[in-house]
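Hi Y.,

Following your request, here is the sequence exactly as I used it, all 258 residues.
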Amino acid sequence: MDLGLQDKRALVCGASAGLGLACARALAKEGAHVWIAARRESLLKERAIELSALGAASVTWCVADLSEPKGVESVLAQQSEFDIVVTNAGGPRQGDFRQFTRDDWLTALDTNMFTPIELVKRVLDGMMERGFGRIVNITSSGVKQAVQGLDLSNGVRAGLTGFMAGLARQSVSRGVTINNLLPGTFETDRLASNFLAQSARTGVDAATLLAQRLAVHPAKRLGQPEELGAVCAFLCSQYAGYINGQNILMDGGSYLGA
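Below is the corresponding structure, written out as tokens. Let me know if you'd prefer a different format.
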């Protein structure tokens, strides 16, 4: 299936690893011009070579901490007109809300709520003027069902979800869709670090914790990043113009709601 993404200009945040990289790979295979942003220069250089080999029309990388205004500015200085923006950032640290200070909350808000909103603010009007745009926010299954021990994430991602829901209804008539991807347990370095942190808190080996999680998981396995990347590419495609304002859960059926 030709997704109609040839030569589209796509920005993927947090694209040096994990789910962001999976989205960048999927868009590269469709022949898009891909801009990748993350904090690790050495990894970005490697990823640029890989994405070019996969078929990207071009690949541009930018070392940037997108939780800071200057990081957003450095990306938009390279290119300010995008057809596709995939926002993505590692979740805030784990823990009980009683542990967190005001600064902890502000850091989480900067990274997981304010930065996506700022990026969208800077690109949305141009997308609407040109009559095409796709914004995909990678958030968390915690938006649907709060995850114990992820109090910061549960809170700030819910705020982003509410904001994007309202905005999506304002842009779709001009050809711009806004949707959120909600991953559950995917096989990423981030998930591995979460299990290590849980292990440190509980004294239970990380491998045992993972086995316990999978034992009660409907799919009995972890999600693979390329699965999420493929869904992201479809949401960005010419066929997804009527999918808008949605929270698309990718958790293998863990969420028990109908």
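The mean pLDDT is 94.

Thanks again,
Q.
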